[in-house]
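Lecture notes, part 5. Sequence design as translation. It can be helpful to think of inverse folding as translation between two languages: the language of shapes and the language of residues. The source text, in structure tokens, appears below.
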């Protein structure tokens, strides 16, 4: 079964075409950027096809997806003979609210519920709907599945997801912790347990998805019981440009003193803070590490702030679960920035987690245990693959539909 995975942003579309017949095989992948601007960009490549780069007007998502389909079937760039070979489409959807506790076949009712969550994720869900609607128009007979960033976290107990605001705001606006990166957190935890020959449903695991967006998840016996991102992805760790945890009084003070509008304040906490905002150097950890090596003290302090906050969340989640068996690093920073991992992991000895510094320094973009032999708590680096998770869930749902129909 060939599955097209789409991740639609407000002005971009990431995609992969995977053959899920036996072992998953990547046929092609690519990225469309600058949708709606004067000149859009398409980059398309695959292990057995000619790469393609186009610069042209891409006015909307329907045109963008049509370009993707043309590339997948092109004479030199194609990896399938015709569109009839696409058996299903899996969509990454950021927010499922309380409507979805698992991935879902996209029916008219499911689409309506995704739309109801647009107020909870105004930058993401409208874009996902554009992708869903575009595929419905271009390939109306192909089944579509939505895989939600939030669904894995729907197992959190109410005392973990409620905020101490007047309860009426939960009743009126569903203000609560939702959490994100759920597909990644679940995927790496299950993958690590398989590598260790452990039962995922027996262990206490903390997963650290560290990238430009970053979050931590406490997984107890296969279920998410807490996570650092909240009502929006701005809560929790400091990130590339997001502020993370902050005294609300501080932001109110800044708004007053700087006479900031709501829009300007939103821009401050989402796009002008975090690694970029504090360091003044970059939102990319690689740039910060390079600047730190060259003697930029503020860049080095920024890295230490990031590592310190990760360590704090790990400690908090060990307390929340009353124990820990495994700590996992994943995401762009977690998989590749070994000096950042070292700043975090070398402080975890109190958990019975011995840290193997030499192994850590050689572990970049691969799956590896970086704790010492015999450690009570294991530490691992595990590569994530959110597109594969989406493809697997899509395969499972579409297959079950065929069996029951």
């Amino acid at each position: 079964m060939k599955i097209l995975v789409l991740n639609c942003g407000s002005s971009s579309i990431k995609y992969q075409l995977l053959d899920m017949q036996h072992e998953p095989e990547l046929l092609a992948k690519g990225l469309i950027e600058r949708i709606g601007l004067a000149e859009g960009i398409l980059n398309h490549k695959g292990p057995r096809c000619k790469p393609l780069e186009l610069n042209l007007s891409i006015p909307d998502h329907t045109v963008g997806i049509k370009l993707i389909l043309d590339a997948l079937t092109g004479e030199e760039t194609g990896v399938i003979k015709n569109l009839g070979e696409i058996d299903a489409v899996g969509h990454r959807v950021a927010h499922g609210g309380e409507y979805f506790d698992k991935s879902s076949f996209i029916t008219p009712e499911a689409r309506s519920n995704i739309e109801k969550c647009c107020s909870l994720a105004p930058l993401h869900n409208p874009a996902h709907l554009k992708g869903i609607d575009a595929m419905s128009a271009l390939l109306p007979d192909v089944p579509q599945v939505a895989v939600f960033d939030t669904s894995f976290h729907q197992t959190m107990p109410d005392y973990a997801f409620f905020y101490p605001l007047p309860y009426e705001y939960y009743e009126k606006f569903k203000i609560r912790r939702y959490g994100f990166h759920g597909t990644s957190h679940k995927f790496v935890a299950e993958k690590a347990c398989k590598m260790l020959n452990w039962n995922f449903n027996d262990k206490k695991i903390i997963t650290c998805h560290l990238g430009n967006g970053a979050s931590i998840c406490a997984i107890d016996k296969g279920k998410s019981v807490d996570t650092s991102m909240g009502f929006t992805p701005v809560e929790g760790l400091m990130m590339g440009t997001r502020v993370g945890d902050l005294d609300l009084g501080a932001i109110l003070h800044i708004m007053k003193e700087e006479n900031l509008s709501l829009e300007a304040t939103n821009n401050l906490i989402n796009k002008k803070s975090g690694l970029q905002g504090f360091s003044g150097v970059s939102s990319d950890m690689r740039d910060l590490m390079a600047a730190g090596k060259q003697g930029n003290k503020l860049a080095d302090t920024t890295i230490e702030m990031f590592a310190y906050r990760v360590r704090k969340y790990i400690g908090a989640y060990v307390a929340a679960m009353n124990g820990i068996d495994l700590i996992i690093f994943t995401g762009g920073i977690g998989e590749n920035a070994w000096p950042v991992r070292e700043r975090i992991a070398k402080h975890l000895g109190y958990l019975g987690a011995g840290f193997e510094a030499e192994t850590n320094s050689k572990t970049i973009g691969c799956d590896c245990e970086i704790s010492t032999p015999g450690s009570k708590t294991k530490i691992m680096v595990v590569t994530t693959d959110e597109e594969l998770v989406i493809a697997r869930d899509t395969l499972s749902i579409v297959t079950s539909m065929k069996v029951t129909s």
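The translated text above is only one of many valid answers, since several sequences can fold into similar shapes. The chain has a mean pLDDT of 95.
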